Amino acid sequence: MDYPKTRSYLTFAGLLLLLVVAAFVPLSHLLSFAYQSGEQSYILLVPVLTACLIYRDADRVFAEVKPAFTPATLSMFAVAAALICLAYFLEAGSELQMVVTALAVVISVSASFSAAFGTTAARAALFPLGMLLWIVPLPAVCVDWLTVTLQRASADMVDFIFRLTPLPVFRSGFIFELPGQSIEVAKECSGIRSSLSLIILAMIIAHESLWGNWRRAVLVISTVPLVVFKNGVRIVALTLLAMYVDPSFLTGSLHHQGGVVFFIIGLLMLLPVLALLRRGDATRNLSPQTRAAGA
């Protein structure tokens, strides 16, 4: 048994337990919000994703374990403690309290990891620890703006797709009039939850599969038009099914619980973009002689 590493694991677990106890009340409000929120329920999965990423690269991350309570680490603990204290004085369950609590958790977990395993291990786990920032709730004003923006973009995509069909369509804002059918691209059709979830997954895929920050940025940014296209296809498909197969398609389970199916479709549409960017990576990594021979 590797006793130094075991001691580090126990130290990290103890520090996390101390964090949970110290921030129990405001943390419970944050978890309750994440559980009940339709748009930001991904918050509950972010710590799991972080743990999985660290576990996947455990050999590299924990190659050199040297516990160290450095001045920087102690300063981070002090900031986290101050934020936790502040959270108790803020309105229970308020947006500000949840943001402050989430920041305290991110800083405390990062400091605990650095203290238990050392700064080298913390640097190796910088990306997984940085992903914890996704547990910080987005302000309601940002969520509303994103929702309306995606709603408008989805309505424009629906309009574009319908114009490719022979169906006569009259559009008035978010409402589309078709023969025997009228639909509205509501806020619930914006795909805000799937958009944020897909962006998180794209960040992980980009980090694990691509070299170069610009290629990673391209993959993440490409999720936005793909989500809009996916939303448009979903709305048009359900409308056509309701018109020509069964009207219940607009009110049934495929409409209300079929988001997972279309989310997977959106994820699959991301694969060609990833393949193209990886091809660029492979070309870059070839020697000049190999590239010349291939040409």
Biggest beta sheet attributes:
3 strands, antiparallel
Count of helices? Answer: 14
Radius of gyration: 24 Å
Give the overall average pLDDT: 86
Number of domains: 2
Distance between the termini: 54 Å
Global outline: elongated
In N-to-C order, the SSE pattern is HHHHHHHHHEEEHHHHH
Structural class: mainly alpha
Task: Note down, in words, how this protein is organized.
The protein has 295 residues and is mostly helical. The chain has two domains: 3-134, no CATH class; 141-284, no CATH class. The chain is built from 14 helices and three strands. The chain has helices spanning 3-22, 24-36, 46-56, 58-61, 71-89, 95-117, 119-124, 126-131, 140-163, 192-209, 213-244, 253-256, 259-285, 288-294, and strands at residues 170-172, 175-178, 181-184. It has a three-stranded antiparallel sheet, covered by helices on one side. The longest helix has 32 residues, at 213-244. It is elongated, with a radius of gyration of 24 Å.
Task: For the structure shown, list the relevant keywords.
single chain, 295 residues, mainly alpha, 2 domains, three-stranded antiparallel beta sheet, 14 helices, 3 strands, 4% strand, disordered C terminus
